[in-house]
Hints:
The chain is mostly helical. 76% of the residues lie in helices and 7% in strands. It has six helices and two strands, in the order αααββααα. The chain has helices at residues 2-8, 13-26, 31-52, 79-90, 95-119, 121-170, and strands at residues 54-59, 62-67. It has a two-stranded antiparallel ribbon. A hairpin with a 2-residue loop joins β1 and β2.
Amino acid sequence: KTSSAMGVLGNDFDQTIGLVVAGAEILTGQSSKVARGLRTIGNNLADAANEAGSIEYKVGGATKSLKLFDASGKNLKSTFQILSDLKGDWDKMSNAEQQALGIAYAGKTQFEVFAAVMDNFDTATKAAETALDSAGSAAQENESYMESLDFKVNTLKATFEDFSNRVLNSE
């Protein structure tokens, strides 16, 4: 459920893995809660985008704004990208400002997930990169195997053609 919901919210599989890993690393044994929370957070951010196109929050008492659509203005940024954009300010916020932002977009029931992911966002980035690299590595291994298999098949074909020509020529 989470992967498809997060996909609709613009996240690729690697980003979804990163977010879940970041939350579950802090909320040990609660990966289902983290997954539900991420769906809620993503949907709340999408609602905010549809209503205003951006979110406002405070950092050190100053109001800041974050656009929720990409540069074209047509596509919602992924949940991963929005949280990544917020991360730099999150670390500068007071506890009260963090709580206000978290409750605004995660709600009281999912605040813990929001805070865990934001506090551990470096892990989300690393896990997403690892997932992407792993997929790339698997693709390279598969390509090497296929090239090797193609080479063997082509060699077998050439050998068979040579054998067939010799048999036909000897008759």
